[in-house]
User: Which sequence fits this backbone?
């Protein structure tokens, strides 16, 4: 069964293709804050839910003796469906309104929250942290907010839920909001929104509620629909990691040679002078092709095929950039690493496979510089290893040079994962601090 929303027009499809009207957001909260209910409410009120799903949830709610239609059943039901037979750390859900399409990275489970959240939030435009109005900010709320900013998620929303249980008291909201704003001021995030809602009763989720006349901000959905994300993309530094070389062996296209990949930064146009790394050779872009035909420009996150004027020796893992704006190939990498392996810690001397954009290399851990306490933001410099869910600063030496940028400059070319070569499991996620 698909949970994908409305079928769009071709125009919409083109917009989505360009990422212009798509918002990816990650949700986080502690147990029972109401995350499932909130997501259920968004799906329901945006009419993404099918009649039969709704009918079955209504039936199940009645059977359980619930007073309300239990929206969490909707979310959890979808979750269970997704999880059948496979281990999924992050469940992705889709819904759409006439203004935008949304992809929610929902991170179920509380034990592995750091790992899950890193997975879910690494590509998110926005992170939504939920708290229960009766409890206010708890340790996990701070940790989630911190992780989101560490992953450079540009927009942060604190949803103060269950306002109905505190009689929509402005004072309660104000206290939580102020405490959060103070905390967020210490983090690297520029856009913070705090919204009082009742996920259960629908207040301020889709439309503004008459029960919070003191609240002057937008409803949650209105904010999600309008938050400006186009400016978050790096359109300055041209970065095109080559994923595949396309060269038909026969037929009338056998003279075609193109390089397929997803634009990671900047804008590419036919005629642009470009440099290909690691060779350093320069040429011009002859044309840019997509599944829908040639285009006059390409920018993140478009997937395209780039043709070059000269026949250079380009292969998977190479990077097309600009002659005067290119990453410096480096084998010494400093990074914040989130460790995700329960079987063994990251420690000096250990070797891993590195996946960075479309490139693979091997790396040895030279040093653990410190481990970060995500609650106090304190750096423990005596730490010499990272255990499951730990985050710390690490120095690596790779076997072949990476074509890397700082993560804060580019989340794609600044990020990497570490893979255990014996098990082929992803054991760490890294954000390059200097290359
Ligand atoms: N009164 C009230 N109850 C709510 C509200 N939102 C959620 N709840 C209730 O809080 C309980 C927990 O809600 P869930 O949506 O299951 O919580 P969750 O955070 O998703 O929990 P997980 O199952 O861990 O994902 C349920 O009994 C909900 O009905 C709200 O706005 N007001």
Assistant:
């Amino acid at each position: 069964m698909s949970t994908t929303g409305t079928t769009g027009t071709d125009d919409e499809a083109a917009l989505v293709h360009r990422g212009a009207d798509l918002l990816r957001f990650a949700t986080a909260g502690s147990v029972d804050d109401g995350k499932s209910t909130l997501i259920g409410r968004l799906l329901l009120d945006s009419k993404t839910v099918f009649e039969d799903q709704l009918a079955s949830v209504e039936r199940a709610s009645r059977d359980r003796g619930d007073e309300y239609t239990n929206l969490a059943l909707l979310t959890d039901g979808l979750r269970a469906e997704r999880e059948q037979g496979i281990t999924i750390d992050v469940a992705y859900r889709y819904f759409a309104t006439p203004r935008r399409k949304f992809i929610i990275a929902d991170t179920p489970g509380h034990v592995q929250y750091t790992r899950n959240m890193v997975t879910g939030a690494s590509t998110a435009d926005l992170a939504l942290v939920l708290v229960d109005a009766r409890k206010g900010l708890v340790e996990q709320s701070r940790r989630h907010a911190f992780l989101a900013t560490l992953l450079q998620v540009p927009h942060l929303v604190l949803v103060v839920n269950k306002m109905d249980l505190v009689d929509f008291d402005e004072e309660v909201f104000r206290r939580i909001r102020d405490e959060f704003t103070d905390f967020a001021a210490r983090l690297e995030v520029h856009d913070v929104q705090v919204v009082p809602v009742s996920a259960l009763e629908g207040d301020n989720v889709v439309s503004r509620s008459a029960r919070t006349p003191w609240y002057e901000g937008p409803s949650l959905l209105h904010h999600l629909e309008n938050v400006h994300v186009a400016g978050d993309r790096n359109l300055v530094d041209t970065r095109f990691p080559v994923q595949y070389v396309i060269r038909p062996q026969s037929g009338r296209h056998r003279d075609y040679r193109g390089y397929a990949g997803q634009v990671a930064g900047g804008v590419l146009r036919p005629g642009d002078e470009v440099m290909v790394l690691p060779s350093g050779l320069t040429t011009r872009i002859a044309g840019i092709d997509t599944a829908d035909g040639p285009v006059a420009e390409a920018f993140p996150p478009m997937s395209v095929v780039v043709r070059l004027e000269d026949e250079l020796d380009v292969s998977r893992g190479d990077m097309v950039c600009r002659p005067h704006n290119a990453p410096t190939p480096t084998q010494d990498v400093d990074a914040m690493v989130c460790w995700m392996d329960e079987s063994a810690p990251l420690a000096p001397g250990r070797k891993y496979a590195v996946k960075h954009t479309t490139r693979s290399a091997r790396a040895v851990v030279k040093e653990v510089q410190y481990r970060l306490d995500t609650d106090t933001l304190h750096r423990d410099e005596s730490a010499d290893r990272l255990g499951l869910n730990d985050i710390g600063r690490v120095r690596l030496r790779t076997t072949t040079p990476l074509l890397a940028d700082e993560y804060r400059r580019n989340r794609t070319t600044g990020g990497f994962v570490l893979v255990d070569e014996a098990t082929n499991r992803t054991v760490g996620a890294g954000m390059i601090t200097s290359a």
The longest strand covers residues 359-372.
